[in-house]
Amino acid sequence: MASNTTPVDDRANPGARPKARITQASAIRQAIENDILSGVLKPGSPIDEEELAARFNVSRTPIREAMLQLQQGGLIDKQPRRHPTVVKLDLPRLVHMYEAVSELEALCARYAATRINSREREELQDVHRLAAEALAAGNAADYARYGRHFHAIIMQATHNSVLVETVNKLALHTLAYRRFQLSRPGLSEQNQAFHEEILAAILAGDGDRAADAMRRHVTLSGDVLADYISMGESVLADAQG
């Protein structure tokens, strides 16, 4: 499998800090996500961890971490003593997850508008500014990271641990698709415009407006996914058939 990922090697530095290994695992996970969602890796395909270690020039440790992240995100299935395999895309379930996540994140934005503290306000504005700078610079990886942080701060600002835990568990299964959609032309700019609207509503303490903007933001992600699937229907049918 061809890849544009820059090889990373932790074998020469067995004492590398965990942060470095996590960075490697995240880069590998992202590359495999792209392979799965673009159809390079088809549903049911086995994934050989030794081949991945050679492809990315790394030890097995970050490969295992990447596999765990992909399994948690619902993109691969891993059974004991077997190679991981790419799961079949359950479209109705994915649409249902987007519906649920849009309502839960809308609730987070509503609560955040009235519960956010001064530190969180400042952090939310800073992250939004950094995202805008990353977008202007064409740095897709940083932009995606700041976007996730933006949502995380809003969840934190609800000061409701049960709600945060619930959203995190469910949103984990849509995260790969949301990341992938940002690669489509114009989607990052549209994403940033929604964040601007959500931020303004939260800073104004307008829970209704913040919830509506967040709901439309997440729902759009689901709509874009449906469009993507529609355009690639024949490819998907071949892949899953």
Give structural notes.
This protein is mostly helical. The chain is 72% helix and 2% strand. The chain is built from ten helices and two strands; from the N terminus they run H-H-H-E-E-H-H-H-H-H-H-H. A two-stranded antiparallel ribbon has the order 1-2. Strand 1 and strand 2 form a beta hairpin. Helix 5 (118-136) packs antiparallel against helix 8 and helix 8 runs antiparallel to helix 9 (207-231). Mean pLDDT is 81; it is low at 1-22 and 232-241.
Q: Tell me about the biggest sheet? A: 2 strands, antiparallel
Straight-line N-to-C gap: 22 Å
State the CATH superfamily name of the largest domain.
GntR ligand-binding domain-like
Unreliably modeled segments: 1-22, 232-241
Shape: globular
Averaged pLDDT: 81
CATH class categorisation of the largest domain: Mainly Alpha
Structural class: mainly alpha
Radius of gyration from CA coordinates: 19 Å
- Can you write the helix and strand succession as a string? HHHEEHHHHHHH
Short structural summary:
With 241 residues, the protein is mainly alpha-helical.
Question: Topology, pairings included?
Answer:
Elements lengths: L17 H20 L11 H8 L3 H13 L3 E2 L7 E2 L4 H25 L2 H19 L3 H17 L4 H21 L5 H17 L3 H25 L1 H8 L1
Antiparallel strand pairs: 1-2
What distinguishing features does this structure have?
241 residues; mainly alpha; Arc Repressor Mutant, subunit A; Four Helix Bundle (Hemerythrin (Met), subunit A); two-stranded antiparallel ribbon; 72% helix; globular; disordered C terminus
